[in-house]
Amino acid sequence: MSETSAPAANGRRWITLVVVGLAQLMVVLDATVVNIALPSAQADLGFSDGERQWVVTAYSLAFASLLLLGGRLSDLIGRKRTFVIGLIGFAVASALGGAAGSFELLVAARALQGAFGALLAPTALAVLTTTFTVPKERARAFGVFGAIAGAGGAVGLLLGGILTESLDWRWNLYINVFIAAFALVGALAFIPRITRTGSRPKLDVPGTLLVSGALFGLVYGFSNAESGGWDAPLTWGMLASAGVLLTAFVVWQTRATHPLLPLSIVLDRNRGAAYISVLITGAGMFGIFLFVTYYLQLTLGYSPIQTGLSFLPMIGMLILAAQLGTNVLVPRFGPKALVPVGMVLGATGMYFLTFLDGSSTYAANVLGPLMLIGFAMGTIMPASMQTATLGVDRQFAGVASAMVNTSQQVGGSIGTALLNTLAATATADYLVTHAPVTAEVGAQAAIAGYSTAYWWGAGFFALGAVLSALLFRRRGHGLSLTRTEADADPAAAVRVVEPVVVG
């Protein structure tokens, strides 16, 4: 099967970028925007502290488990149709969550959001891929999209604070209805029509069931480790089951007539390096958003809105680095140079955060590291996203894109579980060695926990620097095509360089 689309007029292409950018922003920020609203939602609906995590976990479980299925469906039933279905479904699920009168309905709505997010996210970049075929324009588009993907979490913190303080926690969900409505109008009017040639491939049902079960077990296992401990039978049971199912999935993909994810996609050295880079960055990023948020609110006494505003300089640096990287540095140096440099910058920023204490200030001690980390993320993500989806046959564009989302989601789950556990252990050890426990000792113990998380976050980035430097091939997969080569044979550039998808 192959898919072709008539090149859109220049203006239509950039409107398409706005449309898929809105969809991407909606999916990414929804992973954090609801966190700010949780205390208000808990007071309103009356659920317990133990139940509270399910408002977040329900979304991440459905999202992670169904990503590869969502990506493959976009390959099978068409990008535009899948995109529209995802937008409508996400909007309806958000409206249900906003109107929820019980904890059970809120959790069900969040799971439904995750399911439609898994359909929407891999499709968004597939649409972008088939729309932007000129290398120079595609680099700009990926720079914008990569910036949105990296900054969405911080935007969610700011938006969540504003909506919760100014309106009501329910608007953290209702806001998606308005974003989806704008994106839907744009999608119907401006996303190019896709023409399919050849027979329609079949869905690999056994492979879908195996990998969905494996991803569910993986994310659930790490989520349970965060709340129930690493020694809990449920934690190890889910992680062990995930390992068995994932092994069975790999074996099946070598035998399936219509594989869900051809192993050649992930075994390619450059793409494999990119997936690993995205996973490690996803794990390290949680040390930024989670523990810096705790520090700003609990130690410096910032409000939710002030906390969100504090991340804006990081977003600015991320956008700057993304544009500089995709338009200048990636074409010139390739991911083998750029991604390790970004990882080193990320490790350095996390290292500086370990010096924070009770007397630190935002301007003197927090702002600089955040800006450095923002520049690091803007350097890593667009380059990794492009490389992870280059050179893939169009019929597997969606599922290859979903692999990027899957890597980031699994990395985030691992990072959350590990960093929370390590921080909690460090806090407990500090309290034991500094008895009697006073308010001041408790505050210092919390800071000791944050510092431990930052150290490990720095370690994640350092590991990423080593692996990316070793694994990426020099100027591989067409990222180093010179402007003369691309201009001389644009079709060849598209065949070699064509990015596929991230979510």
Give the SSE map:
Blueprint: E1 2-4, H1 10-45, H2 49-77, H3 79-98, H4 103-131, H5 135-166, H6 171-190, E2 195-197, H7 205-228, H8 233-253, H9 263-267, H10 269-299, H11 304-310, H12 312-333, H13 335-353, H14 362-388, H15 397-433, H16 439-471, H17 483-488, H18 490-497
Antiparallel strand pairs: 1-2
- Report the principal-axis shape: globular
CATH class of the largest domain: Mainly Alpha
Helix content: over 70%
Q: Give the integer mean of the pLDDT values.
A: 81
- CATH fold-level topology of the largest domain: Growth Hormone, Chain: A
Radius of gyration: 22 Å
Q: Into how many domains do the coordinates divide?
A: 2
Query: What is the strand content?
Result: under 5%
Provide a count of the helices. 18
Q: Point out poorly predicted stretches.
A: 1-8, 476-503
Brief descriptors of the model:
mainly alpha; globular; disordered N terminus; 503 residues; Growth Hormone, Chain: A
Please describe what this structure looks like.
This protein has 503 residues and is mostly helical. It has 2 domains: 10-192 and 260-497, Growth Hormone, Chain: A; 204-259. It has helices at residues 10-45, 49-77, 79-98, 103-131, 135-166, 171-190, 205-228, 233-253, 263-267, 269-299, 304-310, 312-333, 335-353, 362-388, 397-433, 439-471, 483-488, 490-497, and strands at residues 2-4, 195-197. Helix 1 runs antiparallel to helix 2, helix 2 packs antiparallel against helix 3 (79-98) and helix 7 packs antiparallel against helix 8. The longest helix has 37 residues, at 397-433. The protein is globular and about 75 Å long. The protein starts with a strand and ends in a 6-residue tail after the last helix. Residues 1-8 and 476-503 have low confidence and may be disordered.
